[in-house]
Structures are given as C-alpha cells and as structure tokens.
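User: These chains co-purify. Model them together.
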Amino acid sequence: MNRLKPLNCNIILMQCMAGKSRRVLILKLAVLLMVGLIGGKATAQMAPVSGVTNAPKASAPPDDGQWSMAPKNYAQTRYSELDQINSNNVAGLQVAFTFSLGVDRGQEAAPLVVNNTMYVVTAFPNFLYALDLTKPGAPMKWEYQPMPEAASQGVACCDVVNRGAVYWDGKVIINTLDGNTIAVNAKTGKEIWKTKLADINRGETITMAPIVVKGKVLVGNSGGEMGVRGWLTALDVTSGKIVWKAYSTGPDADVLIGPDFHPFYAKDRGKDLGVKSWPPDAWKIGGGTVWGWIAYDPDLNLIYYGTGNPGPWNADQRPGDNKWTCGIFARNADTGAAKWYYQMFPHDEHDYDGVNEEILLNMRVDGQERKVLVHPDRDGYIYVIDRTNGQVLSAETYGYVNSTKGVDLKTGEIILNPAKRTKLGQTVKDICPTASGEKDWEPSAFSPKTGLMYIPHENICMDSEDTEVNYIAGTPYVGADVRMKAGPGGNRGVVTAWDPAKHRPVWELKEDLPVWSGALVTAGDIVFYGTMEGWFKAVDAHTGALKWEFKTGSGIIGQPIAYKGPDGREYVAVLSGVGGWAGAVVAGNLDPQDPTAALGFAGAVPDLKKKTTAGGALYVFALPKA
Amino acid sequence: MSLRYQKHNRCLTFAGAMVFTLTGLALAQQSSYLPPSQSGPPFVAVTKLFPGGGSPPPQDPRVKMYQGNPFYINEGHRLFIWYNCVGCHSNGGGGMGPALMDNQWRYGGQLDQIFASISQGRPNGMPSWNGKIPDGQIWELATFVRSLSVPASTRGGPAQAVPVPPPPMTTHRPGKPVSEAPDVTSAPK
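Assistant: Joint model of the two components:
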C-alpha cells in the first residue's frame, strides 16, 4: 500500500475523468457481458464483488423487518434483508399510501417502523406523527407537537431540517430545532421527558438524529456557522438526565480526554490541545459541532462520530490546528471517555466538517482481517480507519479533488494544495470540493451481498473569499463570501458504488442536481435514492442500471427505508420535501440572483426554483398484491 | 453591489457631495444620540388591514431624509457587513434569513417598517437589535436594505445633490415597488 497516495484526479482533470469513465465503462461492460453469458437471472445470482467484507454482527444484527433508528443499525449500513422487491419485479412498484406532513421545509428524516407503527418527524416545527400500518391508508394514531421556539429558525444555518427520530423501549425520542431532546410514549404520543440542551441565543440548534446506546440517548449540537462550541452528550433514556457531556474544544477535562486516550498519530497527542491549538479563548467559539452520525461497536464498547468545522470559516482568524474539529472521536460507550481521535483536516479552511457517517465493517486489508470504519468525508477522501486504534489504512478520493494532494498514511497528515488555500481579502477560484464537500450529511448504504457502498454525493466547486467577521453571539460567524458552481462535467450530483476493499468505484450515476438524499440498499440488490427534482429511483446494486422511478411532489432529500408490513409484504418509504443547505433556495424562498445566498449554495443551483417547489409528504411504495 | 453606489458618488458634484455628506453626518449623529423612544418611528403598522376602513398612520418624517440617499445607503452597506446581517441575508439573496432584494416583504417594505423589523426583531428568527445598534445606524441599515430592491429600470443615472421628498408611500402595493428617491427616479426609462 502506498504511504503517500497521489491523487489520480488532481493534475489534469479531463484526462483523469476520461480515464475514470473508461474504467467504469469497462466494468459495466464486463458485468453486462457476464449477465449476457449467464442469462436473464444472472444479476441476482452474481457472486459478491468482495465476499470477505461484512458488517460486524454485534453492530448489524439480523434484520427484523423494522426500522428503529435512522441508520438502520449501529454499523450504519442502511441495508435491509428484505428481498421481495428485486430487479426482476421492481418495475411494478406502486404507491401504497401517502401522507402530507403539514410542513413544507426540507425533509431529511428517515421514517421509523416499529410494532406496525410508522413514526415520522418533520422539519421545524418538528411535528411527530404515528401512523397505524395495520389499517388501510395508514391513518394517524397520534400527533405530537413539541412547539419549538419560532426564533430558532433564525439561527439554523442551512434550512430548518431534522434528520430523524429513534425508537427505544416504548419511547420515540426526537430532537427539536430549538435545542430540546424529548421522549414521547410510542403508544400514546404523550411526552415522557423533555431536556433542554442547546441555547439559541448562543446560536445553538439541534438537527441530528439521536441514537440510543446501552440506555443512553446520544445527542450533539448544530451551529458551526454561528460560533458555538460543539459537544456530544449522553442522556439517561428513562429520566432524560445528562450522564456525560464531551466538548469538541477546550481543556482535556471538558473533552473527556484522560488516561485511556491513545491517538494513533503523534500529531493528535499532547495535553490540552483543544486550548493550545487555538488563539486565546477562540476555542470557546470554535465550532466542532456534532450534527452527523454516530456508530457503535458493542464488542469494543466504543462509539464513533465526527466533529464539524472550526469557526469562523475565515481561517486567518484562528491560526493553529483547531482541535478537536474536523476529526473522528472513538469514545467509551459508558463514560464518554475518549479512546482515540484522528483529525482529517487540521486548521480547516473550506468548511470540511467531519460529521459524515462511519460505516463499521470487518474486511481484509493487505491480507489481514481488520475491524474498520469507512468514512466518506467532506474533503473528498474515503477514509478506511482501523476502528480499534484510529490508524488510517487508506484514503482515496471518490470524486474530483484539488484542494489537497493526498493523505500521508505514515503521519496521518493531509497534504494541502497551496494554490487552493484561502486568504483574507483574496478570491481563490475553483476550490474542489466545495464547502458542502464531495459529500455532505446524506448517508451512504452498504450491502454485504455486493460488498459495495452506495454513496450519494455532489460534484460542486467554489470560489471563496475570506472576509473579516466580528463575533456577535447568536449571529453567524462565517467570514467568507462563497460562490459555488458545478464541478467538472457539469453534473452536480453523483451516486457512486464503491468497493471499500479494493478502494475503487464500480459504477457511477451522474445526476443533474446535487444528490442530497440518503441511500438504501436491500437484499433484493436494489439501491434506492431520491433526486432534488423529486424522482425516487431504484437502480440495480450491481450495475447501477435504472430499474424504476417515480416523480414525487417535491425534491427528495430524505432517507429511504424498507420494512415488512403487517401483511408480510416489503414496503419502501421516503419523505419528499426539498430543502437542506442544497435546497434552501426553494425552502427559504431565497433569491438566486445573489450567488452568495445560502452560504454560496445559490450559485450552484440557480435553476432549482424552476425544477421543484417546496413540499412535505411521505410516500410509501409496494408491489401490487399478488 | 457597492459598485452601483460608487457610481452614484462619482456623479455627485463636489459641492453637492460636501453639503450632502455634512448634512448626513450631522443628521446621523443627531439621531444616534436621541433616546430610543424618540428616535424610532412613533408607530408603525405592519398590515394593510384596518377593520372598517382607515389608512396607515403617517410615515415617520425621517423617512424622507434617509430614503434613496446614497450616503446613508453606503453607510448602511458598511454596517450590514459589520453587524453580520450579511451572515444571514447574504448579499441580499438571503440564507438563514429571507432574501432582501426580491421586493417581497413579510413585515412591510416602507423604510419605517424595515426600521421596526430590525429594532423589534420578528418572530421567525429575526433578532431584536433595539439597544444594541444605535437607532441612527438602524435607519442607515434600513435605508440600505430598502435600496436592495430598487427596480432595475430606475438604477443608475445622474444623481441630484439634494434629495426631494419621495412620492407618498400609500401608492405601495404588492407587486408594484415603491418608487425611490428622485436621484434615481430621474434616470432615463
């Protein structure tokens, strides 16, 4: 394995892209040839591309046909073992029922299904609905309205989204935009406890989907564009009381760094780096928010999550490595004590939050069976990290990257491209990937049948000019004028099927608009995802061939799920409702004549208002009854 | 955005500019040092609905002084960045807060209504800046914000040194933007 991975794609773009396309094409042709040789049923029978790659059983137990947490399981595979819907019959998929959410902001949540009830949480004002799946049309069982502070909408950086609820032992637990975590009785819809965690007057909100590990609800804050101090906290699921809280900046005691902390790389070792790697007191408003995904390995008793960008975006105002932002923490699941940490991007200059998913896999690396986490980062690299100790085993680009030149696996350092470093008062053109990254929050899926990850992502670059910014509590703390634009090739979205064992793409689908929805993969070898125009698509997991599509009422940025209904049939559900950072132009009715609107995203999607309108609805699909 | 105001400034005669600037400074300082209760508008309605008929309350007299005045627009632009307005509203296209250049107004697009929105805050996320930003500066911010949706056809053109009163605001209807100060309305159509 190369110590220093040179980028394939950062020197001469067109040749590189052409090479990549050729490679994908050859692979596609090979697959088609095999299909042709073996016959019509070949796709379903094809052997997995990499048979040794699998999710650990303790993190991804056998599927019970329900969906109780947004990422499906602690390994975050978003893989359903249901196989009634497959590439032979998916073309017959029909709408089973729909439900209007009563909210027309960006719907990023995954619906949950437990005990024949579907639970859906909406964007602000965070309505929680329970739908009875045993009755025709799935009528409402109850509705819970948490009544969050309306003012919280003014401190939510990128639309007023919510990424989903979690079910645990008779409770449905949600976060609200104004910073509360609330447990609701799953049968009655009555509130059990409510704990205020975040302060909107300091710019804090909560948008992430909580998960429950060993009776503790894990919740982190949002507000990386508002000069907040990031944290992850654990609440007792019975009482809602805080058990521990781990900050992402500040003294070791606040970060829960103690004697058990053993980072793999020397650069992440030292006392109170969360203070020393900042100008005086800057860590108090330095970001590192925890608004993404959390994985859990019961065998190692460790949780894994990423920290967000440092603030402000203008990096000249915070010389230093800005620890512990833009990195991954492994922590003891009981105490929160840090075990290891790896900083993908010290002194981030491009808003490359480290919060994307960590898919837990056991796979063969250089002939050895390793326990890894696979993390497709905003910075454009897929990091394969030994989850026992934080060693980076590989870091490969999965799209066009020119802001960096590779990751030195010996030191763990990312190698910056000096030409793309941002400077105060200067416009740096064509930084790729853009601030929202090669991929933002939208989660990937992994199929143990194909051994592939299915990564929904973007192909967007930016021009960026750093500006001086004052810290005013409760207001943005950004300091950059950003103008985004389509990346090489002009398609702003991509779905990549990636082989984590072989570090390479197997197929890629280009989408006109950024792909801002999550992915779902099933044992029927179908990958589901949505587009911002509103198409809900089913593609072959082996080839990427489009098998079925349906146009929903608004753009899709939600997380599709699959479940077994009370009638034993397989259903697929997704929320439609454009928004999020990528869709803020529509959800917030912004004016795309200003390309810096929505922190620069308006520049990349000036056409979005002509392609979709705001909405909010649940769509559930099934095959016709036999 | 600042370019178009620089263009105005270039068009000002030297004498005109001096009179203008000095007057503006004096007025800005004067309004800054008045107590908030006296220096904000006395009463601002944010609705067009007056049960049984009636009309909006008279506009604050200072609107005539600020509206369309390039000096205050420039000052407002500077403050718009200084106070992080730009962080939420971008350069007028919006983000966390609504767009300000599209001439759609949730709480009214008259200058005194914009003043009230900045000073009082608004329920869906606009903070209240009363007591945190001097009232004179809020007037300047409002003047800049109002200028962002000046109809394109009236932009540019020769500026006049002394602004004359704008047309009555009662002509403002949704979809028909308020006319701006004569330094811009005098531009050839």
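Chain B has one domain: 2-43+57-164+176-185.
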